[in-house]
Design a protein that fits this description.
The protein has helices at 2-17, 177-189; strands at residues 21-22, 27-30, 39-46, 52-59, 62-63, 67-68, 74-78, 85-92, 96-103, 108-112, 117-122, 127-136, 141-150. Strand 8 (85-92) and strand 9 (96-103) form a beta hairpin. The protein starts with a helix and ends with a helix. It is 15% helix and 41% strand. It has 2 helices and 13 strands. The strands form 3 sheets. Strands 3, 4, 5, 6 and 7 form a 5-stranded antiparallel sheet that branches. By secondary structure, it is of the alpha+beta class.
């Protein structure tokens, strides 16, 4: 029984790490906070060798915990209103050495120094970065996972009927205003 429990735990960690870009060695993390809103900022902490040591995300006005490690050397990338991350690329050796975030407005912001093998991912058309997961060791971030979500759709407003117009809210010709309001009320009941 203990053997089955151990295998189940190891399989769970392996499944989570399958979508990691870079190295899958180390401790897995997942940055919670997407329920508080969209990503508004990314903070990366550096090692002495300028590799990526830790990461923190800001959702609306709330900063997440730091995953990986803290340091006094860090940089922030602040997104403007209506700006979303649509692509991430970088480089990895034993540690993540660089990450570049590209937004829907064409802005690019790079962290670290490009060395090692390249990694890249985008969510596809009409997708934006929702949150980040990854792997970290005692020394640095070793891999990164990216969770994508659909961009929020622009709300479609229902046209307001013109009292002087002979069309109802669906574009049908109506002779009198009383019939127009009754027809609209009855149409809404059918849904």
């Amino acid at each position: 029984m203990l053997l089955l429990l151990t295998l189940a735990l190891l399989a769970g960690a392996t499944c989570r790490a399958q979508n990691i870009l870079g190295n899958k060695a180390g401790k897995y993390f997942y940055i919670h906070g997407e329920e508080k809103g969209e990503i508004k900022a990314i903070r990366i902490f550096y090692t002495v060798a300028r590799e990526l040591k830790g990461i923190q995300l800001k959702f609306q006005n709330h900063w997440s915990d730091v995953y990986g490690g803290h340091s006094t050397s860090y940089e922030d990338f602040l997104l403007k209103d209506g700006e979303h991350i649509i692509k991430v690329h970088g480089n990895v050796g034993m540690c993540l050495s660089s990450l570049t975030f590209t937004t829907n407005k064409g802005t690019q912001f790079s962290f670290g120094i490009k060395k090692g093998r390249p990694i890249e991912e985008s969510g596809g058309p009409d997708q934006r970065l929702q949150t980040v997961s990854g792997m970290h060791s005692v020394v640095c971030l070793s891999g990164i996972g990216l969770k994508w979500t659909n961009n929020p759709e622009k709300p479609q407003r229902e046209p307001i009927p013109d009292p002087d117009n002979d069309k109802d809210w669906q574009g049908k010709t109506v002779k009198d205003k009383g019939k127009r309001e009754k027809q609209r009320y009855n149409d809404d009941d059918d849904e």
